[in-house]
Design brief:
- The protein has 98 residues and is mostly beta strands.
- The chain contains no helices and 10 strands.
- It has strands at 16-22, 24-25, 28-32, 37-41, 47-52, 58-60, 64-65, 67-75, 87-91, 96-97.
- Strand 2 (24-25) and strand 3 form a beta hairpin.
- It comes from Bacillus cereus.
């Protein structure tokens, strides 16, 4: 004979969204760039994710809690220079920021 005790807790899933990037040649929007690598930093500068562009020049993040983030390119595609500027994005509930 076993005795079981259950505690029921309701967990509210935090509001989340995603970041989607598209990397193209600055002189030719039709030239998609594969292999660009970005860190996703939260508002405190902590790295919370990484994006790497595919052959279509696109990458999409995992679910992120809503809030402000910064994208920092850490590796440029072959024969290209790193972006000098950081990219500020705001993740909204149930949305994909491009």
């Amino acid at each position: 004979f076993h005795n079981f005790k259950f505690n029921w807790q309701h967990w509210n899933k935090p509001s989340t969204g995603k970041v989607k990037i598209k990397k193209v040649d600055s002189n030719n929007d039709n030239k998609k760039l594969e292999g660009a690598k970005f860190h996703i930093e939260d508002s405190k500068g902590k790295i919370v994710g990484e994006l790497v562009t595919n052959k279509e020049g696109e990458a999409i993040s995992k679910d992120l809690p809503k809030g402000n983030y910064t994208l920092v390119e850490i590796e440029a595609p072959k024969d290209y220079e790193l972006l000098k500027d950081k990219i500020a994005v705001k993740v909204e509930k149930d949305a994909v920021v491009e």
